[in-house]
Design a protein that fits this description.
- It contains eleven helices and eight strands.
- By secondary structure, the protein is of the alpha/beta class.
- The chain has an eight-stranded parallel barrel with strand order 1-2-3-4-5-6-7-8, surrounded by five helices.
- The protein is globular, with a radius of gyration of 17 Å.
- The two termini are about 30 Å apart.
Length: about 260
């Protein structure tokens, strides 16, 4: 189940594609735009709204494309109205799941405790959690990025052992930089490299050098084909969590090709 590819381009569709017609149109456009898509060292992961996961998984048959969900619950099944179990995600073709996204924490009151349990169960059910961690604008202003990242990593990974950490993807998501917050600038390559090194040092300290080297660290926040190379490639990030640009299939394909080039 180990992730083989060096780079992951993960599309978070959020609560877009709100109707079946929009889903069908997106799939038609993707079929057109991905005709010449060949990825060897990169993987494109599509995380549509849960109600569309089966449509995506049954209509896209490219070897370089996987699917995932935007969240899952911390129990497999039971009397949990509206809950989405990680086994459900897997049974409908999902291999990945986004956990701890800032919008889940902000609008749904998601706690670090909840994220830690979700992450553990997702791994148990053979999903790759995409764990989002990052500082908000006030924390950045107070120069608390290091403390925030280390705190969230420690709490959110508390149930993940050395033998399974490689199944987890760490997404550095500076909350102040995501497009929904209308950022006036993005993190510099140096800032992203510092965050990546900080995360890597944490992983080495907790899990050892060998295990830490197999964990993919990606960036999330206002990424598109125009800035991917500058923001992700130059900073050494191993991919990106894409938000708004996911609505445009040609943008995703273009970003994936840039990631594959790696320069």
């Amino acid at each position: 189940m180990r992730i083989k590819e060096k780079h992951l381009i993960i599309a978070n569709f959020k609560m877009y594609l709100s109707g079946k017609g929009q889903v069908s149109q997106w799939l038609r456009n993707f079929d057109r735009d991905s005709k010449n898509l060949e990825l060897i060292e990169s993987r494109l992961v599509l995380c549509p709204p849960a109600v569309s996961l089966a449509d995506f998984a049954s209509n896209i048959e490219l070897d370089c494309v996987s699917f995932g969900a935007q969240d899952c619950f911390w129990q497999d099944e039971g009397a949990y109205t509206s809950g989405l179990g990680s086994k459900m995600v897997s049974s409908y073709g999902g291999k990945f799941v986004i956990l701890g996204h800032s919008e889940r924490r902000k609008y749904f009151g998601e706690t670090d405790e909840a994220v830690s349990h979700k992450t553990s169960l997702a791994v148990k059910n053979r999903l790759h959690p995409i764990l989002c961690v990052g500082e908000n604008a006030d924390e950045k202003r107070r120069e608390e990025t290091k403390e925030v990242l280390l705190n969230k990593l420690e709490k959110n990974l508390q149930f993940i052992g050395k033998g399974t950490i490689e199944e987890v993807v760490i997404c550095y998501e500076p909350i102040w930089a995501i497009s929904a917050n209308n950022p006036d600038h993005l993190p510099t390559a140096n800032e992203l490299m510092e965050a990546r090194v900080l995360i890597k040092k944490f992983l080495v300290g907790k899990y050892g050098q060998s295990a830490a080297e197999r964990v993919r660290i990606i960036y999330g926040g206002s990424v598109d084909s125009k800035n991917y190379r500058e923001v992700c490639v130059e900073s050494g990030m191993e991919g990106a969590l894409i938000g708004g640009a996911s609505k445009m299939p040609y943008e995703l394909v273009k970003i994936a090709k840039i990631a594959e080039e790696g320069k």
